[in-house]
Amino acid sequence: MTTAKKPSGSSNSNDRAEIRIGVSDSTRELTIESTLSAGEVEALVAKSASSDAPLVLQDEKGRTVIVPANKISYVEISPRAIRKVGFGTD
């Protein structure tokens, strides 16, 4: 089984990734906000695909998502946007 979990205090906001997984035979995609970096997620997906082991990811709240490798249609990894509060200008 391909799995990863980071201790809750070990990442900063730049390391976090939003992961979207398309699952075959499903009309909905899975969206996970992870404490893993994009590189770590990419390595887990590649390992899962090459070994045909399930992809196991844990989100920020500790929930675990398990996806069989043969059901993964696509994986989109993007850095998490930091939500700003207020009327600031950039």
Comma- or semicolon-separated keywords:
1 helix, alpha+beta, single chain, three-stranded mixed β-sheet, SH3 type barrels, 90 residues, three-stranded antiparallel β-sheet, 6 strands
Give a verbal description of the structure.
There is one protein chain. The radius of gyration is 14 Å and the shape is elongated. With 90 residues, it is of the alpha+beta class. Strand 2 and strand 3 (29-34) form a beta hairpin. The chain starts with a strand and ends in an 11-residue tail after the last strand. It contains one helix and six strands; from the N terminus they run βββαβββ. It has one domain (2-79): Roll (SH3 type barrels), CATH 2.30.30. It has a three-stranded mixed beta sheet.
Structural class: alpha+beta
Q: Can you write the helix and strand succession as a string?
A: EEEHEEE
Strand order of the largest sheet: 1-4-5
Q: Which architecture per CATH?
A: Roll
Calculate Rg over CA atoms.
14 Å
Q: What is the strand content?
A: 25-35%
Whole-number mean pLDDT: 83
- Give the overall shape: elongated
Tell me the count of domains: 1
How many E-type strands? Answer: 6
Instruction: Give the helix level as a range of percent.
Output: 10-25%
**Low-confidence stretches at least 5 residues in length (pLDDT < 50)?**
6-11
**N- to C-terminal distance:** 43 Å
Which CATH class is shown?
Answer: Mainly Beta
Largest sheet, in brief, is: 3 strands, mixed
| Annotated CATH topology | SH3 type barrels
Number of helices: 1
Give a brief outline of the structure.
With 90 residues, the chain is α+β, with helices and mostly antiparallel strands.
